[in-house]
Specification:
mainly alpha; 3 helices; 0% strand; 81% helix
């Protein structure tokens, strides 16, 4: 269990350390933003970047929650087994 927790923490640290480089956009989004900026709409670019980061991070958060729930359940099962053996 300790190794799984170490791997999850290491993976989370790597994910957080690369967040500055994740502020990129695909080619279609970039063209759309350039057209909007040339028309005077500047505020949409920040919202698009946040949306991209949200879509990027959501699967990792879901996997993290599933691992956490699995870890807690296995810990409860170990405690029940140890109580039964006594």
């Amino acid at each position: 269990m300790r190794t799984i927790l170490t791997i999850v923490l290491l993976f989370t640290g790597l994910l957080v350390s690369g967040i500055n480089s994740a502020m990129a956009q695909c080619a279609m989004c970039r063209i759309s933003l350039e057209n909007n900026v040339s028309n005077g709409e500047i505020g949409i670019s920040g919202n698009l970047n946040l949306g991209i980061l949200y879509l990027f991070a959501l699967p990792y958060v879901l996997v993290g929650v599933i691992v956490l729930l699995w870890y807690r359940k296995s810990k409860e099962n170990k405690q029940l087994e140890s109580n039964i053996q006594r």
